[in-house]
Amino acid sequence: MSVETPNMFSDEENILLQTALFKQVSPAEAEELIPHLKRAVFDKGEYIFSEGDTDHRMYLLERGRVKLIRTSADDRVHLLSIHAPGEVLGEIPVFDPHGGPRTASAVAMSHGTRVVWLEHDALFSWLDEHPRVAIDMLQVMANRQRANNERISDLVFMDVPARLAKTLLNLGSRFGEPVEQGLKVPHDLTQEELAQLVGSSRETVNKALMDFSNRGWIARDGRSIIIFQPGMLIRRSRR
């Protein structure tokens, strides 16, 4: 990991303006936070923060992808979610009045993953000056809570192929790259991680992937999936 100080940020560069959390903030207001920002660059596999940490930092993903994981008492690892540039990481300890500990670990998925962070005190001092921004933050956090509730509902009411179809569509909308054959989704996940993201066993997910492939909806290409027929995946995700 390498850390940059605030004076290494270019004048025209402010990651805050690129995040949903600060989308209504004016450039002048965002500039007030620049002296309090720190940036760090991580290599693939490095931990940005770890489950159990008690820091009060909020992270903003600037470049790369990050996965959130939890580890059980017997050292089993479970993949919770994947995050893309412009998204917020680790905000719970910042807004929790009782502080940490962190409930998950954040791991860089690619070399050169870059984040910036704010400490709790700097953020809340700024919010005292711009309380209107807190409404935008509540909206973003409410949307995240809605997504979490929807995922729990999917685990209860949807079968594995439906959840897999929905997961592939979600990954495609966030990370997909148009290619001649369709939409290429470079998820960079192991078979076990993809199964964890779907909320099932590797064997069951592989069986569903094989079925989708045999039907001509998708093709597997290493740690990427090419979606040929998104409409069929949408239909399957609603069954």
Which labels suit this protein?
8 helices, globular, 239 residues, alpha+beta, four-stranded antiparallel sheet, single chain
Question: What does this protein look like?
Answer:
The protein is an alpha+beta fold. Helices cover 38% and strands 24% of the residues. The protein is built from eight helices and 13 strands. It has helices at 27-31, 92-95, 120-129, 132-157, 160-175, 191-198, 202-214, 230-237; strands spanning 2-4, 38-42, 47-49, 57-63, 66-71, 77-83, 88-89, 105-108, 113-119, 177-178, 183-185, 218-221, 224-227. The protein has a five-stranded antiparallel β-sheet. A four-stranded antiparallel β-sheet has the order 3-8-5-6. A four-stranded antiparallel β-sheet has the order 10-11-13-12. A hairpin with a 4-residue loop joins β10 and β11. α5 crosses α8 (230-237). The protein is globular, with a radius of gyration of 19 Å. The model has no long low-confidence stretch (mean pLDDT 87). Residues 21-110 form the Cyclic nucleotide-binding domain. Residues 158-231 form the HTH crp-type domain. InterPro entries: cNMP-bd_dom, cNMP-bd_dom_sf, Env_Response_Regulators, HTH_CRP, RmlC-like_jellyroll, WH-like_DNA-bd_sf, WH_DNA-bd_sf. Keywords: DNA-binding, Transcription, Transcription regulation.
